[in-house]
Amino acid sequence: MIEADQIIQNLQKQLATFGEEPKTQNIGKVIKYADGVAIASGLSKAAIGEKVFFNSGSTGIVLNLDEDYVSIILLDEGQKIKEGSVVKTSGQMLGIDVSQDLLGRVINPLGEVLDEKQKIKKDKTMPLEKIAPGVIKREPVSKPLKTGIKAIDSMIPIGRGQRELIIGDRQTGKTAIAIDTIINQRPKTKDQRPVICIYVAIGQKRSTITQIIDKLSSSGALDYSVVVAASSSEPAALQYLAPYSGAAIAEYFLEIGKDVLVVYDDLTKHAWSYRQISLVLRRPAGREAYPGDIFYLHSRLLERAVKLNKENGGGSITALPIIETQANDISAYIPTNVISITDGQIYLQSDLFNAGIRPAINVGQSVSRVGNAAQTATIKSVSGKLRLDLAQYNSLAAFAQFGSELDLETQKQLDRGKRLTEILKQPQFQPLSESLEFLSIFAVTSGLMDDVPLESFQRFETELHSYVKRGHPKVIDSLSSGNKPSPELLEKLQKIVLEFKKGF
Amino acid sequence: MNKKKILLLAAESYKGGYLDEKRVNLISSFLNRADLKKYIRVLIRLENTKKIEVFSAGNINHEQFEKLFPNKRISVKYDPSLLLGARIADNDMVYELTLKNSLDKIISNIEKNYD
Fold first, then answer.
1. Distance, in angstroms, between B98 CA and closest chain A CA?
2. B93 — contact with chain A (CB < 8 Å)?
3. CB nearest B97 (choices: A2, A7, A19)
């Protein structure tokens, strides 16, 4: 609470400055206004990306500078703008007011609150556009960011500071993976610091955004999260700005040494909104009518994902961009662009989803280019065998379709593959801890579940987890250490699983 | 007609620093609708660069402003809402040194920083 004396002192300071400096403003007049873009004359001192104010109360950003006029995109509906309206420069680049109070809140890309809670107190204004930290400030990805999804943590591990693309057709579970990852960042112990999560919804239905907020809230994940929402009913300019707002908020937390996760859901719609803006600005259209700088649009955003070295605070920003494909075509323009920018991709396929394999990850086409370095020794000890067994299964499964007689060894491998596929299935919004992930994969790769019927796999796994958690908490603790499990521990685990099997 | 030619015609529309009606009428009679539009736009822009508008709540020393802006036409307008001081509009630049502006700044500061 600021005391009355201080308030008066501040006012006196303000008064003292009267007469010192004249207010200088650069003004212009609207010549034309259509499709959310205003063309204004004057504004000779305006800069690209500068915030401008219309006398009708609307706000815009300068996106094009021409010899005689500037093009401004509106950040609201701008219904009162007409020919001749006065527009003023602000001298400010577009920024967002940020503070710790943002946690647990839902805001729009300009930082205005969308939930009906109290006003957010400003700590700092972060610029929406910022050059990503250079190579000197960075260090290689070395710490894992656990998603709580067995298939990802074991075979496509994500490290803090990595950019991992989630790609797939509509209704294949892309958002579910991102939400699971956010839920999994909830601190397991009191001392543990959560990873700050920022969920950026771009061009989604309002009902979908509400569902996501509800899910985050009910699972206790909203306390350490910020939701930046620009629904499909918002102007294209807001949808275009949304991911940059998310990145600016992430950078605020990064500056105070935190680990941050940003989900951009999704960049396909972001590209659409930018295409719309570019077309109304009459910028030359290229492939699929996207403007020439569409690659730079995403590369400059994703380049802001970073793992800083200790001298620079040691924080990190992990980015999980989402791309929606059409008919599983990952060779389209935007998907290939974003695939080439990111450090790997999780490819979800609709036929796998429809076959009941959920999460519907295509293991063959999914990859994590830097995450392996961040994987803990615990999970690494089982993931190698898992990958190999699955790869063998996939190649054999193709031959097995011909129906020819198979030898015993091949049949065994096929059976193991089926079991591995089954164990990697996981219900939505139920992320697992690393120890439980290890337990499940170990039980299959070591052949301990070879005699468990496939139909009972899910039940077996759930019951095994609660059995071990209840009866052998020390084993869980040892597996949580991140170290490679000792032969004694593995032997003990084997015994525990066999013991459980007797009662199953 | 290209832009350079329009600019040239607009420059030729002036005589002794003032817009000449005869020249303007002559030039405009040769232009088609699209070019006339461009010509008008350029003339407006040129006119804006040649004049200064001064808004003030009190009396203004006209000569002082003529010295400050020697090659420009100065028009003074009375605006009591400024309370004290003056606002000078030079083409697309506006310089304001008024009490109203100072009070506005205080109000916006209070609104921003205090609930």
1. 8
2. yes
3. A19
Give how far B15 is from chain A: nearest CA, Å: 24
Same domain (yes/no): B28, B56: no
Would you please indicate which residues of A are annotated as catalytic (active-site) residues? 369
pLDDT of residue A395: 84
pLDDT for the residue numbered A16: 66
**pLDDT tens figures, A268-284:** 999 999 999 999 999 99
Does B43 share its domain with B55? no
- In chain A, what residues touch B48 (CB-CB under 8 Å)? 42
Question: Of A25, A34, A24, A36, which is closest to residue A61 (Cα–Cα)?
Answer: A36
Looking at residue A451, the DSSP 8-state letter turns out to be: T
Query: Do A141 and A159 touch, CB atoms closer than 8 A?
Result: yes
Fold of A26-92: Elongation Factor Tu (Ef-tu); domain 3 (2.40.30)
**Residue A52 three-state SS:** strand
Q: Do B102 and A14 touch (CB under 8 A)?
A: yes
Nearest CA in chain B to A13: B106
Q: Give pTM, 2 decimals.
A: 0.89
Domain chopping of chain A, boundaries: 26-92, 97-375, 378-503
Q: What is the 3-state secondary structure (H, E, C) of A190-223?
A: CCCCCCEEEEEEECCCHHHHHHHHHHHHHCCCHH
The CA distances from residue A22 to A17, A92, A318, B87, B109, in Å, are: 10, 18, 45, 9, 17
Q: B-chain residues within 8 Å CB-CB of A24?
A: 93-96
Do residues B36 and B77 share a domain? no
Measured in angstroms, the CA of A43 and the nearest CA of chain B are apart by: 6
Q: What is the pLDDT of residues A59-109, one digit of tens each?
A: 999 999 988 899 999 998 888 999 999 999 999 999 999 999 999 999 999
Q: Which of A6, A12, A14 to mutate to test the interface with B (most CBs of B within 10 A)?
A: A14
